[in-house]
Write a structure and sequence with these properties.
154 residues, mainly alpha, two-stranded antiparallel ribbon, 73% helix, 12% strand
Length: 154
């Protein structure tokens, strides 16, 4: 009987080592997002073994980690702007030696230069709001982790 428990225990450990090994091998130690991926991977594995409120909280935090890491809040305004004003195009000016100077964005549905400038001003305002939302989500994510992490393993 004890040998079966021993074999099952080592088998689970080996499976865990292989799973983490694959995850660790796929990235670089100096990469912040890779560290977050490994931490999230650990949390996701943990939540599969829990059948309570902790599993729900872990899953919620993992979803928030995905949104924060992908910059969902930071870039959502670009999609909104493109729905309203059409596709944008980056305009540059050739300044010689194969170098270009950034001039700005032009919008597909802009009527004239003045209208295009108003659209770009709106984009700047929306970018500021989105950046604040992204920062808030990042802070919230770490606060949720800090508040809950000690109880997840209990």
């Amino acid at each position: 009987m004890h040998i079966i428990v021993y074999i099952k225990s080592h088998y689970r450990r080996l499976c865990r080592a292989i799973a983490f090994g694959k995850k660790a091998y796929s990235g670089y130690d100096w990469d912040y997002s890779h560290s977050i991926d490994i931490f999230k991977f650990s949390l996701e594995r943990l939540s599969k073994n829990l059948d309570n409120n902790s599993a729900q909280r872990i899953n919620m935090v993992c979803k928030l980690m995905d949104k924060v890491q992908k910059g969902d809040y930071e870039y959502e305004h670009y999609e909104e702007m493109e729905k309203i004003y059409g596709q944008s195009e980056i305009k540059t000016k050739d300044i010689g030696n194969g170098m270009h100077e950034y001039i700005g964005l032009t919008w597909e549905k802009a009527i004239d230069e003045d209208h295009n400038n108003k659209i770009n001003n709106e984009l700047t305002e929306r970018h500021y709001v989105s950046y604040k939302k992204q920062k808030r989500a990042d802070v919230l994510m770490w606060k949720l982790i800090q508040h809950n992490i000690k109880n997840w393993w209990n």
